[in-house]
Amino acid sequence: MKKVGTQTVMFDHPPTIVDTASIVGPKESQGPLAKYFDQCLEDEFWGEKTWEKAESKIIKETVNMVMSKSVITGEAIDFCFAGDLLNQCISSSFGLRETNIPFFGVFGACSTFVEGMCLASCLIDGGAATNILCATSSHFCSAEKQFRFPLELGNQRPPTSQWTVTGAGAAMLASSGTGPYITCMTPGKIVDMGIKDSNNMGAAMAPAALQTLITHFKDTGRKPSYYDAIITGDLGHIGKEILIEMAETKGYNIKNNYNDCGVLIFDKESQDTHSGGSGCACVGTTFSGYFFRQLKERKLNKILLMATGALTNATSSQQGESIPGIAHAIAIEN
């Protein structure tokens, strides 16, 4: 049995992350991680007529870039796992419709990038695939328009709100290579603590992150110190502090090696992003740009990458529903 404990799967033949690619928007280009991204855009439209078309172009070009960097062409790719935040994942399906690669559209809200890597790793470990492409995207303008308010209204954002990352991240996974390797995964359960504020996603997602994190430690017998870094996807400043406090009540001190992509990608003070970054591209670009380089340069050798997602939409929010959370984790090791 590859499954250990209640939720974790250990891979006998861990897939290699061959290479990654990332493209980000103008606000991300002004943040502290700008030099790690492959391409920084000067405007949100990138020559397109709508934000949605721009997002499709971003994920399309990011996928083309990772294929070029990894020297693995479309003919050699067995499957593609991709998703985004827009209804029916149109950014991914429209952006990648010309790739001619068997396509799985996946949705885990902001956890989509790691969800795709979980599924891809299972196929590669099981011998069903040699090369799999994983990608995801988000766009501040299209996400605000769909989930909250059209930008033209100029609504004031509360301090708990987060800034959806404009960009896309992509990773090429293969059955052979020199690493870094995805050694195990801990898929998450849906956790709903009754939070209804769509401008406080960090608080809504933190309990799901806690459930996956604690389960991973119990299933594997590992402690937080096993990893050089424990990284969540987009809890932001508020969600990060909540997770630290909740983990401590369970007997796990993660203060020394824990951080969040939504905290890292923007400068809170100078960029006015309130509680930090969010969106599918938050973990997608931060891992594909910054953390993958740290792994390749062996500045980090063991990380737990845990992407979080708020499973909500405009309809459920308007009908007074609460916001369920999800968190999927993968261990990446040299």
Question: What does this 3D model show about the protein?
Answer:
This protein is an alpha/beta fold and 334 residues long. The chain has two domains: 3-174, Peroxisomal Thiolase, Chain A, domain 1 (3-Layer(aba) Sandwich), CATH 3.40.47.40; 181-333, Peroxisomal Thiolase, Chain A, domain 1 (3-Layer(aba) Sandwich), CATH 3.40.47. The chain contains eleven helices and 15 strands. The strands form three sheets. A seven-stranded mixed beta sheet has the order 1-2-10-15-14-11-12, with helices on both faces. A six-stranded mixed beta sheet has the order 4-3-9-7-5-6, sandwiched between helices. Strands 8-13 form a two-stranded parallel ribbon. The protein is globular, with a radius of gyration of 18 Å. The two termini are 24 Å apart.
Give a brief description.
The protein has 334 residues and is an alpha/beta fold.
What is the radius of gyration? 18 Å
CATH superfamily of the largest domain: Stage V sporulation protein AD
CATH class of the largest domain: Alpha Beta
Order of helices and strands: EEEHEHEHEHEHEEEHEHEHHEHEHE
Got a strand count?
15
Mean pLDDT across all residues, rounded?
94
